[in-house]
Each structure stands twice: as C-alpha cells, then as structure tokens.
Amino acid sequence: MSITVLVVEDEPAIQDLISFNLKKSGLTPICASNAEQATVMINNVLPDLVLLDWMLPNMSGLEFARQLRRNTRTQVIPIIMLTARIELEDKVSGLEAGADDYITKPFSPRELTARIKAVLRRRIPEISDEVIEAGGLKIDPATHRILAYADDSCSKYTEIKLGPTEFRLLHFLMAHKERVYTRTQLLDRIWGDHVFIEDRTVDVHIRRLRKVLEKVQKDNLVQTVRGTGYRFSSESAVHSEE
Amino acid sequence: MSITVLVVEDEPAIQDLISFNLKKSGLTPICASNAEQATVMINNVLPDLVLLDWMLPNMSGLEFARQLRRNTRTQVIPIIMLTARIELEDKVSGLEAGADDYITKPFSPRELTARIKAVLRRRIPEISDEVIEAGGLKIDPATHRILAYADDSCSKYTEIKLGPTEFRLLHFLMAHKERVYTRTQLLDRIWGDHVFIEDRTVDVHIRRLRKVLEKVQKDNLVQTVRGTGYRFSSESAVHSEE
DNA sequence: AATTTGATGACAGTTTTGTGACACATCAGG
DNA sequence: CCTGATGTGTCACAAAACTGTCATCAAATT
Questions:
Q1: What is the pLDDT confidence band of residue A61, given thresholds at 50, 70 and 90?
Q2: In this complex, is the C-beta atom of B44 within 8 Å of any C-beta atom belonging to chain A?
Q3: Alpha-carbon distance B132 to B139, whole Å?
Q4: DSSP secondary structure string, A93-133?
Q5: Average pLDDT, whole number, for chain B?
Q6: Average pLDDT of chain A?
Q7: Is A144 found in the same domain as A34?
Q8: Do B22 and B58 share a domain, yes or no?
Q9: Co-location of A65 and A108 in the same domain
Q10: How many Cβ atoms sit within 10 Å of the Cβ of residue B79?
Q11: Within an 8 Å CB–CB cutoff, is residue B224 touching chain A?
Q12: How many CB atoms lie under 10 A from the CB of residue A24?
C-alpha cells in the first residue's frame, strides 16, 4: 500500500527537495505548484495527506486548506502547513484553518517525515484490540497474550507464546471462526495483498501454530478443509467417517 | 515527571496567581495571554491540560476550545474553563465546546489544584502522581522514588535510582501494565509527539531500565514482545517447556 | 496404482533485538 | 571558562528469533 502525499509548493527547488525526501522514506509524492493545480489533482486521486505551503500564488495556503475542509470528500485529509519562521509570528494561525500540524522552514528531512508519520499515525484508527475467546482459547491483542484453559472450568490456564506471524494468523482465524479461508485469502488478509509468497507457506505457518497448540491440546481447533483451506472451529469437530 | 499546564489568561495578576499556585503543587505552568500566543505555544509543547479563561481578547475562550477540539493533535487535551460567577449561565456552552470542567472566579488555590488533578486522573492515569504498585515494584511519582520489594512479605525493600527518561518509561509502562506498546507509541507518549528520535532509541532505554532492575531481580517485569514492542507485566509469564 | 493435496522437518537467509561504545549535550561548582 | 558528572541519542555489531522455500513423506481421491 503506497501512501500518497500531495505537495503544494510553488518553489521548484523546495518541491524537489521534499519530493526526494518523501520518496526516500517510502511515500509517494505528487506535486502541485499552486492551489488550482492542486485542486485538479485532488479530483483525480485523493491523497492520504497534504503538505501545504503557507504562501502560494493567487490563493493562499490558508484559503486552500479551508477549501479542503469545506468539502466532504477532502474533509478528513490531514494537512501539514509549511511556513517560514517569520510568518510564524503572524497572528493568524494555520491551525485555525484546520491544519493538523505545521512545520517551519527550514526543516530537516527527518523532521519532515517524522511529522508526516506522526500525523498519519494519529489518523489511522487502532487495530481492533478486543479480546476474543473461543474453544478454551483467549487471545488478547492489547496485551499480546494468548491463554489456554485446561477445561471449561476456566480455573487453570497456560500462557502460549507465538511468533508474530502465528499470532496474527491465530488472531485472524479466531476473529472469523467457523469460516474457511483459502491459502490465498489468508495471505491477502494476514500478510497483505501485495506480498509475493508461495501459497504453501501458509501450510508451514499452520503447522507451526498447531505445534504450539498441541502442547495444550488445542490443535484440533485449527482444522484443514481439504481442497479449500483452513478454518478455526470450536464446534465439536468430530468428522464422521464413511 | 513534570505535568505542564497551559494557562491562557489575559489578566497578568490572575496569571501570576495561578502560575504560583500551580508551581506550588508540583505542576509546570506555561502562560499565554491570548489565543494566538497559546496556539503557538501548543505547537511547541503539547501541554497535559489547558486552563482557559472564558473571556479573552480577540478570540473568546470558547472559540479557542473549539479550535483545540477540532485539531487531532490537541483533541484529547483536557480543558478547564475559568469563568466569573456572572458568566456562570454560560456554563452549558462551555461544556458544549468540550471543556472537561470549569471553575468560577474567585476560586481557592486548593479548589484549583484539586480540580486539575481530578481531571488529569480521569483522563490519563500515567500523568497523575498516584503511587503505582505492581510485581513487587512501587513507584511514587510525587516523591520520585522507586522501591523494590525482595519478596511478597513487603518487609524488605531496596530503593532504586533511575535517570529521568528511564523513570518516565517505567512509570508509563507500570501505569499501563500488561499492555503492549510499540516503540513509536512509547516515543509519542513518553518523549512527546514532537520529538524526532529513532525508534531504536527506545531499545536502549529499555536496556538501561532493565540493567537497573536486574540488580533487584525485577528485570523480568519488562518484557519484549517480538514484532511489536514492550510490555510491563507482573503476571507470571509461565512458559510451558516442551 | 496413480494422482492430487496436505503435513512435516530441515535449512539458509532475513529481520528484529540486545548491547557496548561513543559523541554530544547540559549543568553544577570551581 | 573550564571540568567532571550525568544523561541522551545513534551507531555498529552480535545474538536471537523468525520466515519462506524445498524435498519428502503421508493421506485422501480417482
């Protein structure tokens, strides 16, 4: 998933500088030198964040920010203002217009990307960290812990330690229990849909997961659906022969 | 740990009075006499709480409060409004704007600090100065002391000395025990979201913290969650061997 | 029996953490 | 203005843990 940042800056030199730094830190910059151009670009692609120079030809950055905020489609896009230090003294604040942060020129590349990431981080909602319990297993994303109950009495439990991938795998399966997922679906959902990994790798992780669950006799919860994929099921998985 | 309170008040006399009282009760006041000044200050340092006079030159306190609430970065900062008794009828709109509490002038110093502490306690446990005890460790933010108990009997204890950063780190982790935090989250919450530091620096501070805790056999309380971050946990992390 | 599909152990390359060292502050108090 | 004590952030390298792939074996299906 590439994060696009719309850079609105009239000075080509600074535009290049910013563009270069964004690319270096894995972001995708798209550049505009004025508000009109930026407006057109926003119509094409909705960026994840806008880096906006305070001083622009024709329409001020402030005005452009207001315009973004006024429009429903662009309302939630985070804005970071670029201002010269002298302009900072200006009584009117960019924050007033709804900017999420501002950076004073000159700034270090590190500061730039750090602020961008900070703002994006605040926007992105936390991954669901609800506790999920099923089949005598309890997974808690917030504490990153898995407990296995010996019996239904819930009195005795053992903590289970999993590697990152197995943890995510179990979490996903438990969050969608009783449902079968193909290897490809699991790769898409857990590894991300851009990775290029063998389907069979999923087998190996399922194996690793089961191996750990064996220790607490819970490996039967992760079931193979031949010809399709895998499933987490707490329902009595007694498959009748014949 | 120093708790900073941004005081927005135009009358110098009252500003001084408040400032004096806050200092006396261990808080760190930063003062602004109008909304513009306050905005600039907030961009530099994120305060833990805002004490806001209702009546301000240019922009009203109410408007300023709204501005804070509108911005993601400042959204969660608790606001306490200062209002004259006559203005009390406006209390409704003050709370509407997102104030967490309000105090009517004239107020006693005791009332002031009591309300501040109450609001802080409600909001974020880690910046209150209550004693936290867990896993045989007792941390007292007020006296800036850490005691380690040798066993459950609580009879013998050793005092532990930590540097400022390690102290805050331990305090934060203990205030949110059992919960995992990524390095970035820790940087945001402990160092502040306006610092630009390498993620890995957290490792080093964790290391320093552990080194000190080793001396009293408490280093196992600070745990690594591979692929995620760190966690303070007093629960016996029983790893079933084989 | 042949074929397809899943299980499993091994392994080599990567990624993530742990750790010591170091260069810079900052700050008393000479 | 120095000077040592302390604290901080970075770095480089070591250690540990994890990952993806394969080859091979086992089981189910035809």
A1: confident
A2: no
A3: 5
A4: -GGGGT-SEEEEES--HHHHHHHHHHHHHHHSPPPP---EE
A5: 80
A6: 82
A7: no
A8: yes
A9: yes
A10: 25
A11: no
A12: 10
